[in-house]
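Table S2 (continued). Query chain:
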Amino acid sequence: MTEIATTAASRSSPATNPPRIASLDVIRGVAILGTLASNIWLFQAFVGERVIDVRWAELLSWTSEGKFLGLLTIMFGIGLEIQRQSARRQGRRWPGTYLIRAGLLFLDGVLNYIFVVQFDVLRVYAILGFVVAFVLLLPEKRQWIFIGAALGAHITLMLLPLFAPDAASLPGFVFPGEFPVVDGRPTYAQEIHINAMTVLSDLTIGSDTGAIFTLGLVCFTLGAMVYRNGILDARGARLRRWVMAVGLGVGIPLDLAFFLSNETLGLGRFLAAPFTAFGLLALMAAFYQRRQIGFIGRRLSLVGRMALSAYVLQNILGRVGQFLLGNSPLSPMLDPLVGTMLMFVTIAVIVFAFSTLWLRHFRKGPLEYVWDVSFRFLTQSRGR
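Corresponding output:
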């Protein structure tokens, strides 16, 4: 999302930057709202009697699980390549000041983890951006070697529990201090206290965050590569067909097989779903090669233009909705699936409305603006 937060800055140099690809923000908006569809189950606030069979909830959860997180990760890699190409055109060193952007993203992730949600990916994306920024300096053949090594490491770590069930994950870092004694559900202040002490504890191999990191090395670099080779523009028709065929042809059957087998290691989410994510990228890119951005596409593109703000906003709304609805008389009145779907639609509508209204008056989202000011202050690049 470092590219997300600096989109407006890149628009200010039309002489040195090519026209912006129209589908880019649309696909990013799909990825942002898709992560909400994945995460909405973590904001569960309804405990009413089940009217709809729980298997329908499992099926709906499966349709989004891992696929849009993978798409968001790929889009981040594409954003990294966009920034690298922009730096090259403008004669600036790479990675150069991008490393400051990565640091700002890590700070955003820390704040998001402490004050909003503990399934934050921004910290991981910041670390990945820092690493892959240097990988993009390598010749393309060596980038392929890096992708192969990262993929091998990822598959090994995912399959390790099958052969070594007792293998423990590496411990993460916990800041020293006393944890509050909690009787029942912790208060928000107690949650902040605990989160501040454990903000680095999940950045370790063996956790979901660790799996996102190893997978992200592949998706970042491969995302940058397919963008470089034209997957989003007219010259990439053949590439899009191949990516769609492999991504959807392998990803969907494999992911479905994992789902039906009831595996519990996250193999569908972290091994199969990324294939589907690449297939979805190619499918949407092909769709917008033949069609103009319509009404729904324009609304999605607004979310994509202020993706960092939209991502944090939907997490805040999810937590607020979880607290308010979970402690209200409405919670036991609705079937959990119906309530969760209504919660998703409500949050999505608010995010759409906020993006539309905000960008009607401002050029960039609120967090993007704060990020831009912070970056300019740190680099003393007020004229850039």
